[in-house]
Amino acid sequence: MKEEKMDLKFQGFFKEKGYTDLTAIQEAVYHPLKERENVLGLAPTGSGKTLAYVIPLLEGLLQGQGIQMMVVAPSQELAIQIAAVVTEWASLKKLKTVPLIGGANVKRQLEKLKKKPEIIVGTPGRMLELADAKKLKLHKLRTAVFDEADDLLTEETLTACRALLNHAPSRQVQLSFFSATNAAVFSELSQLFAAQVKTYDVRAVDKTQGKVTHYLLETPTRKRIETLRRLSHLKGFRALVFFKQVAELEEALEKLRYQKVAVAALEGQNKQQERKKALIDLRNSRISLLLTTDVAARGLDIEQLPAVVNYDLPANITVYIHRVGRTGRMGAQGAVINLGNEHALRNFRQLLKAGGYEAYKGEIFSGKLFKKEDLEESEKLSGENKKLQKHSPKRLPHRQISSLDNAPVEKKRKGHKKRRRDQLNKGKRHGSRSK
For 415, phi and psi rounded to 5 degrees? Predict the structure, then answer.
């Protein structure tokens, strides 16, 4: 399916945005979603999953008909990010979008709901809170999307997701689930949501991932802050840095700020404006390190992000996949830097190998990050060149040879004249005494 099959307004905007062809996931789910199929879409991070559902689902909405589309996301940042994309595309059909996220002003959200939007995007907790209070009307809902579904359909939020749908007309809502990994819960979708869901998995054929190099940077636990500081000074370096514990993140933040490193944090205790500013500062290179956790960074799309740093190594390959998906998006190059001592990295290499990743020992040298094997090869060649130069006759340019040949002659002549003058002067002195 080519983009020419889209609504003409969307087709023109698609080209204006610089897109040429649909990605694998966009191609795979376009017709099924337009035909109101229930879909599970599996595709790598950064492969265009948001537009994969936004374009076909918006094409089926009508202006002024109440809330017809709901997008649920696991984090505030991801919900805001999705809302921005939906708003941009929905405006082409004069459809209104309202973000409903925890941490934001409820009164303002209620005021926006009074303007009768066609689309809502938000986190499950806040939307369920408003639906239970009868402030959010879902009786005209046509389609519901669960983005980063492997994270949404966990024990913590699954109940809220199902409860939200209880406020919508039963058996009339089209369901879509999108994820980068195939979670065990997906095999139970038909039982959990009383709907037949068809899977479209393009992970094996997707070509949007750029070249990402995976480094193992051997670092003693107590030296990890110093390693972050050194990385922050690499030219053009920007990275999301992943921590397991918020307390450890905050300690690292304090130490790095004391060392004058341009750094910020992205975690649950931040106010919404602080979180927004941190992301903007990273995108605009005003900071080089953004410290975060898996929950806070889930689904973030930061264009041209050079690197991801695992301050704490992830416990399993699923977490690793989500973390590394922040870099190398849509064909860009990227790097993943894993910090750990020798023992931890040795075991971690086996985990990566089992997940299909090839990792290299890394080293920071002369203000740059190298694969250790490349650095050793370079040093070896440099040593061989020095050895050759040492045992090779030194050839000098013609002019240098001539000047060196003449130098001793000149020196000899000058020395001869000087001695002659000294002898004459000595003779004169002796002669005057005899007189």
Answer: -65, -40
Q: Which residues contact 330 (CB under 8 A, 6 or more apart)?
A: 46, 47, 48, 208, 210
pLDDT value at position 244? 93
The DSSP-derived string for 191-260 is: HHHSS--EEEE-TTT------EEEEEEE--GGGHHHHHHHHHTSTT--EEEEES-HHHHHHHHHHHHHTT
Mean pLDDT, the chain, rounded, equals 86
Whether 420 is covered by a domain: the verdict is no
329-342 per-position pLDDT tens digit: 877 889 999 999 99
Asked if residues 306 and 238 have their Cβ atoms less than 8 Å apart, the reply is yes
Length reported for the chain: 435
- Strand-pairing partners, residue 243, are 293
pLDDT of residue 128: 96
To the nearest 10 degrees (0 to 180), the angle between helices 76-90 and 49-58 is 40
Tokens of 111: 């005021």
Does 172 lie in the same domain as 27?
A: yes
CATH number (domain holding residue 256): 3.40.50.300
Whether 339 is covered by a domain: the verdict is yes
| 4 pLDDT above the threshold of 60 | no
* Residue 394 domain flag: no
Do 197 and 220 have their domain in common? Answer: no
Half-sphere exposure (Cβ direction) of 187: Cα atoms closer than 13 Å: 3
Name the percent of the chain lying above pLDDT 70. Answer: 85
Cut 0.85: pTM above it: no
Higher per-residue confidence, 16 vs 299: 16
Same domain for 302 and 189? no
In tens, the pLDDT along 382-404 reads 665 555 555 555 544 443 333 33
Half-sphere exposure in the Cβ direction for 90 (13 Å, CA): 26
The whole domain housing 23 covers 3-201
